[in-house]
Design a protein that fits this description.
The protein has 103 residues and is an alpha+beta fold. The chain has a two-stranded antiparallel sheet with strand order 1-2. The protein is elongated, with a radius of gyration of 18 Å.
Length: 103
Amino acid sequence: MLRFRADVGLRNGSLAHWYAGLLAARGIHDIMMEARTMVVRDPSAADNVMGLRTWAHTAAGPRLPHPRGRGRFVAQFDDAVRAGRFAYAVTFFVTAGMLPLSD
């Protein structure tokens, strides 16, 4: 479900993985990339802010997960919450570089 969300559910969901290469291809140099990971252990926060529990049922597109898979995602979310083992992590990438000096 998470891979589906990145590939189909989010506009440019995988862009961060390509960004340094895109900058380099346009002549940017001294490119630095830093990853920052946010870990959320409160299922209410993850669900209220990101709608995590609803991702499976709001997914749309030609590669829509099968309904059984959507139900499994929600069941696993609920089971993790009940068992106190819920954890969600998302990594943000900060990318910067230098423009070449003009003549």
